[in-house]
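chain below, 314 aa
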Amino acid sequence: MMYNLLVDGYSKSGNFDAAFSHLNEMCDRKVDPDFSTYSSILDGACKLGNVEVVERVTSVMVEKKLLPNRPLSEYDSIVEKLCDLGKIHAAEMFFKKACDEKIGLQDGTYGLVLKALTNEVRTKEAISVYRLISERGIVVDGSSYHAFADVLCKEERSAEGGRWREAEYLLNAVLDKGLLPDLICCSPLVGRYCSRRQIDSAIALHNKMEKLNGSLDVTTYNVLLSGLFAARRIEEAIRVFDYMRRHNLMSSASFTIMIRGLCGVNELRKAMKIHDEMLKMRLKPDAATYKRLISGFQVTLSNLETRNEDEEAK
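prediction:
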């Protein structure tokens, strides 16, 4: 066990001379290095792109029958074993070899590699594997997709320029497969849509989440409601608010936005109904905000009365 730890540590740091020295010491002491020991060196060499060490350790593993001489039919088991040991760079090397040599891998192997790369937050490599999965019509287990989608969301929050477009495409693709990532994953993208007045895109994404019974965080919902009212999409704002209600995702700010928005389009009855619901739920805003809210009611009512008087005068 101690030797394995030493070999692993030296391999990770790129000190392969020391790693091989400990291998020789193990052999001198009649302690046989196993698959795990050699795979540590292989993984380190793959990570650092040391082709010479990769070839050397692979040759030794074949000689000791830890790897088959021609692994055409055993790529799946090799990749699985390396993934289980956490030797992801080595697993990725064999995975790429199989793909380059057009050797058919099991669907589960694709899922294993996708999940392994995702867990190491190697997003660029995970995206490449996901594209292979999509292009080849591979079916992988839901947990692999979930892990991948969650990492995409984290990437999305810090994405710049073209990365947003890629995150958008992949997140939509995951949702289209009927898989729901972490419940707040889509919030940054919806918020970005709203800030850029891309309300159609925001609603389309929310509709996909709604079909899967997913939801955004309350702050993002409030941004979406404001965007819908600014675009005069009243019915959609009401529908989104109803969905928020069903998921118990309303705040004092949510009610305030709805009441102001409905007053702004002279929907006083609907605004009053939501006002009463707000009070019943004890979500009344602070005194200054509430005063402005009531003032808005009065202004809207006064405008309606003036309009009615003008129409009667005609």
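The domain at 71-179 is CATH 1.25.40 (Serine Threonine Protein Phosphatase 5, Tetratricopeptide repeat). Residues 117 and 126 are 5 Å apart (CA to CA).
thats it, cya
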